[in-house]
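In full, the data.
>
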Amino acid sequence: MRHLKRTALVLLAASIGVLGYLWLTLLSPWGYHPPADLPAIEATMDGERAHQVFAYGTLTRPWVRRIVMGRAGAASPDALAGYRREALDVMPEAGARTTGLVFEVTPRELARLDRYERLGIRYARELKRLESGEFAWVYRRLAAADEP
């Protein structure tokens, strides 16, 4: 019985730690300070202008989108022609093709995605034409200071 209580306490502490980390990195007002020169996210008067986002990594998973945006949303398969996936980025390459998912977000959800991707610090958000002909935001890695 004592072993069971100790195991339950360890699991509870680990769960609280994971949830705390996710809240701190994805939703809290601390930990991410976007650069001042980032452009504002366009919205209509009601704040509901739709944006398309193309995901090729972690955001292809519905549970990640639910944690980051507050909902998983409907996603459709699409591809980015002329780019190859390399680890956490897509690199231009003639004849290459990166598959992924495209989904629609509100300005508020786009801001949450920007926070998740650390826009301006880790990633840039670029508007690209997908194979379907749709335009969508694509997150691309910024070169780190220690990278060649």
In short: The radius of gyration is 18 Å. The chain has three helices and five strands. The longest helix spans residues 2-27.
